[in-house]
Amino acid sequence: MTFKLLSSELVELIYSEVLYEGEVAGRAADTSLDGALARIQNRINYGLIGDAYSLAACYATVISQGHRFNDANKRTAFIAMDTVLALNGIEIHWNTVEVGQKIISLAQSDIDEALFTQWLRDQVAE
Fold first, then answer.
1. Which of 22, 49, 68, 75 is at 20 to 30 A from 59, Cα to Cα?
2. Which long-range contacts (CB under 8 A, 24 or more apart) does 43-46 make?
3. What local confidence, expressed as pLDDT, does residue 36 receive?
4. How many CA atoms lie within 13 A of 14 on its CB side?
5. pTM of the full predicted structure?
6. 18 CB neighbour count, 10 Å cutoff
7. Domain range list for the chain
8. Per-residue pLDDT tens digits for 89-110
9. Which residues of 19-42 are buried (b: 16+ CB within 10 A; e: fewer)?
């Protein structure tokens, strides 16, 4: 399956758009966004991502847990996830409180990527 992916430049642009005034801009020390996004490509190459939901969940996981930015990692993860879904033909009308709680749970490893992927699928079924 061929997916539409996000470049590191697009993720950086998303980040710059969700950053609030007064937050610390820029990347966290010694982190690589390209390296994090390469993990997604590797998982695709090895057949570990089978659909757009698992792809979007992988972006959300890599960005929210990787702490690549000084601030706004979870917001960046959400917009990146939503963008990946849209680029791959899936539109979800989000309950902002619920999706926010799920992204926080994912970022804190309270839920794993597989459960998050299933939750994404369930959002379309509702």
1. 22
2. 44/3
3. 87
4. 25
5. 0.91
6. 19
7. 8-125
8. 999 999 999 999 999 999 999 9
9. beeeeeeeeeeeeebeebbeebee
